[in-house]
Every structure is written in structure tokens, then in C-alpha cells.
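Please, structure for the following, as C-alpha cells.
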Amino acid sequence: MRLLTDLRTLGEVRAPEHLLEHVLEDLGLGDEYASLPTPLGRVFVAWNRLGVSAVLKTATASEFEQEFRARFGRSPHLAASLPPDLGERFDLRSVTEFERAVLLKAHEIPRGEVRTYGWIAAQIGHPHAGRAVGSALRKNPVPLLIPCHRVVRSDGRIGNYALGGSENKRAILAAEGVNVSALGRVAAG
């Protein structure tokens, strides 16, 4: 009887606050971060041995650390600079398999081109999931690197953007050479 009571109380036990971070560090999965200048201003980029884990636009490093901790449940550590070999690897542990499929398909969209939410939905085998694609892109942990800004609505409207709304989406598309003002005409035609 005592064993059953003890087992039931295990659900109430909480690990020490920093245990996860120590375990992640020991496994080489702790996150480091540095800032990066972009056409949208400075962003902060976090990475670990799996790849880039986050890109967030915040005013300060402290705000970045708070947002990162709130979103991913772990604390990043400031690095001197971005590693030169960061490349095309991404840590997508924070997303579902559907969201991963959406993000990887968005990653295939060439610079200077756009696709629609419906196009991505059809490409990943869920042709009626355009809204779910939008929700998945909103959760993109690495915007700019996985270019969710290159995905627009089928009516030509720009849609939202994870790094600061539709105005930032317009700015980054324009910086890539997309004629943003023509999107509505192209969709209508």
C-alpha cells in the first residue's frame, strides 16, 4: 500500500529548476546565441549542436533570453560571435511533424520568389490545410533562415510575419527583389 502511495506522489515532485539546462549542456544540446544584423535590424540567433534553434527580434539580449526561455523552456548563453559553420542545420525539436513538413517545404522556396499557403499545403499532402500552414509558419522558430516571409495568401495579400508583422514581411521581400505591390495583381490574374 505504501508503495502505491509513494508512486502516486511522484507526479507532484518537481526537478530542480536548472536540472534541464545541466543535462542539455552535458549532452551538447545547450544553446548559445549572438546578434546578427539584417535588413530588419538586429536579430538574435541561438544554436546548439543540432543547428540553429531560434531567430528572434528583440531590443536587447536580456529580452531575447527571456523570450527564448518562455518559448523553449531553457536558457541560452551569450557567445562571442556566430560560428562560421552554422550552415543550413536547424533544431526543430519545438515543432510537430506537420509543422516540420511545412517549414522544410518553405525552406525550398528560392530567394526572390513567393508561394501561397495553399501551395505548401498541397505540396506536403494536405491540400485543404492552408490555414494550418499559416499557423505552422507563425510558430517558425527560425524565421529568415526558413523563409516563412516568402509565403503569402492566395488573394495576393501579404499575410502576417513572425518577425514583426506584415510591414517587416514587405521589407524583407522587397530586399530580396520581390515586387510586393504586384502580388495582388498576380493573384487576381
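The chain has a mean pLDDT of 88. Strands lie at 32-38, 41-48, 51-56, 77-78, 115-116, 151-152.
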